[in-house]
Design a protein that fits this description.
2 domains; two-stranded antiparallel ribbon; alpha+beta; seven-stranded mixed β-sheet; 9 strands
């Protein structure tokens, strides 16, 4: 049972572990790093993902209330995101919720007037990318998958997504 300290929930006794993460590389190859607090029980996983070239920007162990989650940097390509998910399955057997945030072109959402941020998630079998976009009190999902070598993209409402992922 996890005993990681959560300052938000006021539970746990084990302090977070501080790890050094790569935050950016400039055009001259100079690296910028940042020391961050990571929940102790997932700190090794987050450290290994970053060392393997899969940069993370957020994580939470779930504190026995939710599944653990990792948010990857938006600099990752879709293929990198899938590769990171496969790598994670090789190094840890927990069921992590994985996502990344990506700017969405407002022209893709006919009701949006400004650039949006979408939360990109993977299906459990890593076969489809699902981008959740919230705007004007609504939530839409952009689902992307490959079938017979052809990329398919479809916009769905939540009830349609539920049917698609069954």
């Amino acid at each position: 049972m996890c005993e990681c300290k959560s300052y938000n929930l006021g539970i746990g006794t084990i302090e977070p572990r501080q790890i050094d993460l790569l935050t950016s590389i400039d055009t001259d190859g100079h690296e910028a790093h940042k020391t961050v607090d990571i929940d102790a029980c997932i700190s090794e996983v987050v450290e290994r993902l970053n060392a393997a070239g899969y940069p993370t920007i957020g994580s939470c162990c779930g504190h026995n209330r939710m599944q653990p989650s990792i948010v990857f940097s938006d600099v990752m390509s879709d293929n990198d995101f899938r590769a990171a998910a496969k790598y994670l399955k090789d190094i840890d057997d927990r069921d992590f919720e994985l996502s990344l945030w990506r700017r969405i072109n407002p022209m893709l959402c006919h009701q949006a007037k400004y650039p949006l941020w979408g939360r990109v998630m993977l299906e459990k079998d890593i076969s489809a990318l699902i981008t959740e976009i919230k705007f004007s009190g609504s939530i839409m999902y952009c689902v992307e998958w490959f079938s017979q070598g052809i990329k398919h993209t479809e916009w769905m409402l939540e009830r349609e997504l539920d049917e698609f992922t069954k």
